[in-house]
Amino acid sequence: MKNLMLITVLLVAFSMQSCAQKSDSKDAPEKVLTSFKAKFPDAEKTKWEMETDSEWEVEFNWKGKEYSANFSTDGEWRETEYEIKETEIPSNIRAILDQNFPDYEIEDAEIAETPAGKYYEMEIEAGEEAYEVTIDVKGNLTKNKESEENDKND
Hints:
The chain is an alpha+beta fold. Helix content is 29%, strand content 43%. The chain has a single domain, classed as Nuclear Transport Factor 2, Chain: A, CATH 3.10.450. It contains four helices and eight strands; from the N terminus they run H-H-E-E-E-E-H-E-E-E-E-H. Strand 3 (65-72) and strand 4 (77-83) form a beta hairpin. Residues 1-23 and 149-154 have low confidence and may be disordered.
């Protein structure tokens, strides 16, 4: 009985480990790895995944935060994101939210950086509606109303 229990535990652990690792750095192209190491030299705990046919995503720890970054298969950096606390949202960004969404609640907040610039990305609820909001550092706001169909697919 003990042997059966031990075998079951080992099989479950092995299965979970196999499913958790979608890819690792040895699968990512050398150009991608080189670009990543140049941009994030002290990154730790990397976990690689093929995002699309032409893009790799890596999740990692850097400077005490959890990050994700995307690179094209030829090594071009496309985007970096990391979560921030609501208290880390600058007052000018919060003022834009206040002007556009009376009585809102922030569900999730991130900073995204791309070659085009830096953005604050937030999921908010305003009344009965949910939005994905992006505000760039110049104050330009983009909002997308989340539909019930999108929520069902998540």
